[in-house]
Each structure stands twice: as C-alpha cells, then as structure tokens.
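Q: What residues go here?
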C-alpha cells in the first residue's frame, strides 16, 4: 500500500513561523513504523501551501497514494479538511486518516461533519496506524473494531474503539532518523503538569515516559551524519530527570558531536550542574513558560511555580551562558492593567534575553476550553466556523479586543525598552573552563543586536552600542571568531574603517584561515582605496569561491586585467566543479 503522510497548512499567517513550520515528531514516528514494516511512505510538509492548493493537487495526482494520513494539531485542521477533499476528488477510493492531538480531541466532530474523513487515529498513532493499514490491505468487510485507538463510522454514526495503551517501551519504536532527516528531537512523551491552557494533560494523562540515553544519542549521531548541526529538543520538559540529561550531555561531549541545540523546560526543573553540562554539550537556549508575573493568574493556569523559582532559573541559565527565553500569555481570566504591571515588574527581575508573548486562546482538550463549554453551553460544533482558534477574551465580557491588544502592546514595548539593560546586566559563572563558551554566548547575542532580529526592531534602543559592548566583553573571555567578525562588521556600519581593520587584523592573527574575517577586512581596505592590500589579505583563502569573487573585484579596481581574467577563470572552474 502506498502511503502519503501530510502536515497540512494553517489558514492564519504568523509573525513567528518557527513554531508551526516543522513537521511534528509524531508524523516521523508513524512514517518510520510503516517503513520498518515494508510500506511505501512519503511525508509532505504542506504547512505553508494554503495559497497554492493546486500544487498539492498536482502532488496527489502524481503520487496516487492508496492512503493519505494527516497530522492535525487543531489550528491546521481546515488545511487538513481542504486537502482531504482534494484527495477524494483525485481518487474517491483513497483512504483518508486524521491523527494527532487535534484529531484525538475532535474525532467525533470530524466524523460527524466531514464525509471526506474515513478514520481517526486517537492518541499515539504508530501501532494503530499500522494495524489499520493491515486491515485495509486484507480487504475484509468487517469493521476494524478490534483496533484500539481508532474511530470511524459504524452504521452511519461516529464510533470509537477502546483506548490504546501507551507504548510501554519507547525504544521499541523504529528510529525516525534511520529513514528521515529532521531537526526536532524528543527524549520524552508526556508532561506531569496540569496547565489549564495546554492539551497535554488530557492527551498524555499527566504521565511521562522516556527514551533511553542510548536511543536519544544514537538518533543525534545519525542526524549529525546527515549534516544536521542544530536541533530543537521539543519535549515539554526535557530536564525532568537531571541525571539522564547529564548523561546525554556527557555522551555528546565524549563523542565530540559539534552541535548546538535549544530546549524547553520548567523553571523548577533545572540546577547548576545540569545547566553546566547542557552548555558544554551545545545548548544555547532554554525556553521557560513564565506565563504571567501575577501569582493569581498563574494559579488560574495551574502553573505551580513561584517568583523565586522563576528568578532562580533565569539567573542560573544565563550564568552558564545559555539564553533564557520567557513565554508570556496575556488576555487571561481576571487580566487587568495591574496584572500586566506585575508581568513587567517580573521581567525587570528575571531579565530575559528573549521573550515571546501569546494572546490566550482556547483549544479542544484544554481545561480552559472545557470550562468555556460548561459556562456557555457551547459544543464542538463551534469549530464548523473556518477559524483556527477562539481567543479567550471573546468569551469573557470583562475583556474586549482593544483592551487586550493594549495589554500585548504594553508587554512588548516594555520588554524591548528594557532589553539593552538586560544585556548589560548579564552575570556569568567565573569558571575558566566555561570562558570560551561565554564568549560564544555573548557574541551570538551581540550579533542579534547588530545584524539579527533585534537589529531591525525600532522598539529597541542603543542596538549598536549594546552589540559593541557585548562583542568586546566576549573577547575579554576568549578570542572568539564571531566576536572579531561581528565587531568588524559593526565598525563598518558606523564607517569606522580604521577600527574595523584593527579588530579584523587581530582576529586574523587568531584565525588565519577565516574567509569571513579576510573578506570583511578586504571590504574595508577597498573602501579606503587600498585594494592592493585587500588582494594580499585575500590570497591565503583564494581557493574559496567567495574570496575568488572579491579577488576579481580587487583586480578590476587595480586595473589588473590579467589578474581579473585569471581569477574569473578560477571562479568559473570552481563553480563547475560544485555543480551536480
């Protein structure tokens, strides 16, 4: 049987696409299970194809799958429905299966209202999906009542089989990295917390299961072998078992895996020893759910953390050279100008170096959604409207759109106004073994102010002065390549050509083979009319195509026609050699 697994598109545009653009790990696990059992499987990431449905239809016509499975988070459910209709239009006999957290909570709704959907896999999907395919291959007439974790129509009505028991041994699942290339990893399934805005408590029943250290590290090794160097560790709480995390980090260090990665954690689940090992193993960012500076609102979310927990985690994380990112939610029940002030006050105390602000919305499977239904008498048919979600303030007469949007504006503008001071106030652990990592951390942050996301944000003041001080501080710890290069670029922006050349020459003494340092230096020299010196500094890296391009330009400025032709010919030969 030929299977196509699809991650469908969303209908609303997003400011930050990072959260939705990656295929969910569950789809890779299902794909790996099917491939390991001999099935023909492909995965299509259609998260951004909402404006180009004809492309998806062409893919369906070209591939002619026997079964199409969809990963439904909830916000992409209309994308899944649209594509399911295309599937049936291309071939009415193709089986359509919905799965994922969104499908699990709305299985009855989907089967009641959307005839294009034949089956819904509820909960963990690997085994249920495999058993369903085997059932369909057998072409029997009996309904698949024997398959746990499934829903379908029986006698014309939505019907669910018994719940499937969670996979007892996660390591028994085929390893997705044996079949696919991706950047998102997970050590665990589940989360013990009971946050009211999250679907995890109902989906995973507040139980957590773990992969072994061997499984996790082996998956990292396989992906590194495929060229992946940056990872997102997507667990709800990666650091739940510190000893396991430390052992993973020891293995990464011992294996000399040259990677960087970001993780998610809770503020009450980190300590100094673990953070030190995470930093040594390449962790550059940890995101924490702070949610609100108001203890009253955190209690409404059942976010059982204290201000002391939050302050301690942010201080420790930054001390070990890891960017601490804060998630905040606004527009909550009982949100007022005073609770927003509390959030701004907490920000001043924890000094997050990155922050994301979400407006509270309601999703099926969350306690807040269940409270909404009980309070209003609404049912799941509200999702027949073509919307991704319901914003909480739309259900609370004490809040209105303008007021809630003003809450968000105050939080964002207040945070960005304070951010340069947060960067200046960084305190790092005085451990010489960590000094090269501190330099790396500071130069990464500096580059964000000078050339990254913060550089383009007009709400942030003193961007270049802040970047300069961070680059200089990085160099006080270690001759970091990025710090030399970034500082040289900043001085170029400010037309401080002599300063740019001085810092870049210092960098080249430490990193003589750096193409970036030499090209940036050559650019400054050429702007000062010193093209001959620029050429001399480029020659040691003249085997690199980027340097060849600049050498052609140098020779042109020097009116060296013979040299210009020679470097142009070398560049053409290098380009041909790289072509497939």
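A:
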């Amino acid at each position: 049987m030929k299977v196509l697994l699809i991650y469908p598109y969303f209908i609303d545009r997003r400011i930050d696409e990072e959260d939705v653009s990656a295929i969910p790990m569950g789809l890779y696990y299902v794909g790996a299970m099917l491939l390991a059992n001999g099935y023909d499987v492909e995965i299509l990431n259609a998260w951004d194809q909402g404006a180009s449905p004809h492309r998806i239809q062409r893919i369906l016509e070209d591939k002619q799958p026997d079964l199409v499975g969809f990963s439904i988070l909830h916000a992409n459910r209309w994308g899944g429905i649209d594509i399911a209709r295309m599937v049936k239009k291309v071939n009415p006999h193709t089986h359509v299966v919905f799965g994922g957290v969104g499908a699990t909570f709305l299985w009855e709704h989907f089967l009641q209202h959307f005839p294009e959907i034949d089956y819904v896999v509820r909960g963990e999907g690997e085994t249920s999906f495999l058993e369903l395919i085997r059932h369909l291959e057998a072409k029997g007439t009996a309904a698949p009542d024997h398959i746990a974790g499934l829903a379908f129509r029986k006698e014309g009505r939505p019907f669910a089989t018994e719940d499937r028991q969670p996979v007892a041994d996660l390591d028994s699942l085929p390893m997705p990295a044996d079949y696919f290339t991706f950047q998102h990893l997970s050590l665990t399934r589940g989360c013990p917390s009971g946050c009211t805005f999250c679907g995890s408590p109902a989906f995973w029943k507040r139980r957590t299961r773990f992969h072994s250290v061997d499984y996790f590290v082996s998956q990292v090794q396989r992906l590194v072998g495929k060229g992946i160097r940056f990872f997102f560790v997507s667990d709800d709480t990666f650091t739940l078992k510190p000893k396991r995390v430390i052992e993973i980090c020891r293995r990464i260090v011992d294996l000399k895996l040259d990677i960087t990665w970001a993780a998610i954690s809770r503020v009450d689940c980190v300590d100094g020893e673990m953070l030190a090992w995470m930093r040594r193993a390449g962790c550059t960012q940890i995101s924490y759910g702070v949610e609100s500076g108001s203890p009253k609102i955190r209690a409404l979310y059942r976010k059982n953390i204290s201000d002391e927990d939050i302050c301690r985690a942010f201080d420790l994380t930054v001390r070990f050279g890891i960017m601490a990112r804060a998630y905040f939610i606004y527009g909550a029940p009982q949100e007022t100008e005073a609770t927003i002030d509390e959030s701004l006050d907490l920000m001043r105390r924890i000094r997050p170096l990155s922050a994301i602000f979400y407006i509270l919305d309601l999703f099926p499977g969350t306690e807040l959604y269940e409270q909404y239904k009980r309070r209003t008498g609404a049912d799941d048919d509200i999702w027949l409207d073509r919307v991704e979600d319901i914003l909480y303030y739309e259900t609370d007469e004490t809040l209105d759109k303008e007021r809630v949007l003003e809450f968000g504006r105050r939080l964002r503008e207040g945070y960005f106004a304070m951010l340069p001071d947060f960067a200046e106030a960084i305190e790092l652990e005085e451990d010489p073994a960590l000094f090269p990592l501190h330099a790396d951390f500071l130069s990464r942050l500096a580059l964000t102010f000078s050339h990254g996301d913060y550089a383009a944000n007009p709400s942030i003041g003193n961007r270049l002065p802040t970047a300069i001080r961070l680059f200089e501080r990085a160099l006080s710890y270690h001759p970091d390549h990025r710090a030399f290069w970034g500082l040289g670029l900043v001085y170029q922006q400010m037309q401080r050509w002599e300063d740019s050349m001085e810092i870049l020459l210092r960098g080249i003494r430490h990193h003589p083979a750096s193409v970036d340092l030499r090209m940036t230096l050559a650019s400054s020299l050429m702007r000062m009319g010193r093209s001959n010196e620029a050429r001399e500094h480029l020659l040691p890296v003249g085997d690199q195509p980027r340097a060849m391009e600049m050498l052609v330009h140098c020779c042109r400025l020097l009116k060296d026609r013979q040299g210009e032709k020679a470097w142009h010919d070398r560049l053409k030969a290098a380009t041909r050699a790289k072509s497939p």
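A: Context that may help when evaluating the design: The first helix runs from residue 18 to 21. The first strand starts at residue 2 and ends at 7.
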